[in-house]
Design a protein that fits this description.
Rossmann fold; 11 helices; binds hexanoyl-coenzyme A; seven-stranded parallel β-sheet; binds NADP nicotinamide-adenine-dinucleotide phosphate
Length: 290
């Protein structure tokens, strides 16, 4: 199937050193793996060093190149600054930052403790801003261009019940992406975002569709194209947005959700549920010739 294939030409990311937060699992791992295949070297970072080390080993065995695992909780600025220093010591300069780390779970908002709400805000919004500021200040001081790619989701602009801290934080990340795209373009720094719809990962599925919720709320049923996303489809867009092929793309958010959020938004989209026979009857009752 062509959608499961890499899209960019061989060597498209050669010479790029790319930092992926949350790069040990899920979508961060899949995007990183494709960057590696295209010739980039990687730093993957998150809290769990054992997971990162395992992923790094696996990726290098599969694709070659260099993958440096560094433990860092993005909520802690001291850890972020130390991680950035270590990343540069390992690879020289870092050219691209993929802000992908996130925390999330479903809950009625009134049931959330202050700490629960803040935990998600801190990982998603504060974590992203701390990594962005650390990298951005360094790039500006050393007069080095750079590229940010931030993973948000479509409820960054629609909002969504039951994931309110995540929605608030992702909206903040999207605003930051668009703001810095303008403010930091003069330094040669681009900022873009991707808004994925449902892509199966252990991290997301276990927290957003726990127990038998997956059976009750099959995410594919909400998507007009009738399926969830494949990781390579996302990796293709990510690779393009961090490559020099997208040099004129700045401040953009690319949605990849099979039309999911628009389906929820369009006033009459649920008329899909009306069978053809009923349309026939309605047509007949207004006197149209068959
Ligand atoms: C209510 C919860 C909760 C839950 C934790 N808490 N889970 N409250 N419902 N399901 C509360 C805890 O009781 C605690 O509050 C506070 O949150 C912090 O919990 P900890 O477990 O101490 O936090 P921590 O160990 O830092 O873990 C962070 C986490 C965890 C976010 C809670 O789930 C995590 O590590 N997530 C990382 C990966 C992840 O979430 N991936 C999915 C991304 S998917 P109290 O008051 O008790 O101290 C995604 C998809 C978006 O973003 C779009 C899909 C279409
Ligand atoms: P995932 O595998 O759980 O990825 C989240 C990553 O973030 C993990 O590797 C985790 O590693 C890391 N992380 C969490 N807290 C951290 C912290 N405090 N500091 C540093 N790293 C931290 O889930 P995923 O589905 O691949 O999600 C990846 C991104 O895609 C997220 O931004 C998510 O919001 C977005 N997204 C996913 C979907 C989907 O359907 N899957 C849809 C829309 C958007 P550690 O536990 O080791 O820290």
């Amino acid at each position: 199937m062509i959608r499961a294939e890499g899209m960019l030409k061989e060597g498209a990311l050669k010479g790029k050193n790319i930092l992926v937060t949350g790069g040990g699992t899920g979508l961060g791992k899949s995007m990183g793996e494709y960057f590696l295949e295209l010739g980039a070297n990687l730093v993957i970072t998150s809290r769990k060093i054992d997971v990162l080390q395992e992923t790094a080993k696996e990726m290098m065995a599969a694709k070659g190149g260099k993958v440096i695992p560094i433990a860092c909780d993005v909520r802690d600025i001291d850890q972020v600054e130390a991680m950035w220093k270590e990343a540069k010591a390992a690879l020289g300069e870092i050219h691209v930052v993929l802000n992908n780390a996130a925390g999330n779970f479903i809950s009625p908002t009134e049931r959330l403790s202050t700490n629960a709400f803040n935990t998600v805000l801190d990982i998603v919004l504060k974590g992203t801003s701390q990594v962005t500021l650390t990298a951005g200040k360094d790039w500006i001081n050393s007069k080095q261009p750079g590229t940010f790619l931030n993973i948000v989701t479509t409820y960054a602009w629609t909002g969504s019940g039951y994931v309110v801290p995540s929605a608030a934080a992702k909206a903040g990340v999207l605003a930051m992406t668009r703001s810095l795209a303008v403010e930091w373009a003069k330094y040669g720094i681009r900022s873009n975002a991707i808004a994925p719809g449902p892509f199966p990962t252990e991290g997301a599925w276990s927290r957003l569709l726990p127990g038998d919720l997956l059976k009750k709320f099959d995410p594919a049923k909400k998507v007009p194209v009738g399926r969830v996303g494949e990781h390579q489809e996302l990796a293709n867009i990510a690779a393009y947005l961090v490559s020099d092929y997208s040099s004129y793309v700045n401040g953009e958010v690319v949605t990849i959700d099979g039309g999911e959020w628009l389906k929820g938004a369009g006033e009459f989209n649920n008329l899909d549920a009306i069978p053809q026979e009923m349309w026939d009857m309605m047509e007949a009752s207004r006197g149209k010739k068959q």
